[in-house]
What does this fold into?
Amino acid sequence: PGQLSNGATNYEVKNVTKNGSYGQSASATCGETVKYSVLLANSDFGLLKDLTVKANLGSGAISASAVNATGATTSVSGNVSVSLDKGSLVYVPGSTVRISSDGATKTPLADGVAAGGVNAGELNGSTQTFVQFQAKVDCPTTPSPVTIQVCELATKKVITINESDFNSSKHSKN
It folds into this structure.
């Protein structure tokens, strides 16, 4: 009736910024992009419909499910790891594609693989396809504090302070 099958290399990731190779893990730092590749294989003869792929970028968990010819759900899951020295992974909008097993056909898919999942269509019996998507390491920066010159009332000297530290009972802007 159709059955998703799992294997050791069904879920892989690579650092594309550093031109890395696919593997079970990768490392990345601020501003770098990683690409996930999910191999989806139908080991039986029946058609699989509503092939859905989901990813949790934080934990590295990836799952796929589909409905087979008897109406039953078949599913698989696995993990990859991305080691970050800081920051967090954020999905790159528009990066999800379905790629035929020979690599000849790339079909863009909707965003959502890192949210509720994305529908990758159907998968014929005894065939396989890939779903790939990207994430970027986001490292928010804290803005530098704004400094101002004030007269410190206690010493009658002009000093420089962070604007957020201004206290009218201690400082004067005159």
About this structure: The first strand starts at residue 4 and ends at 5. DSSP finds no helices and 16 strands in the chain. The chain has a mean pLDDT of 95.
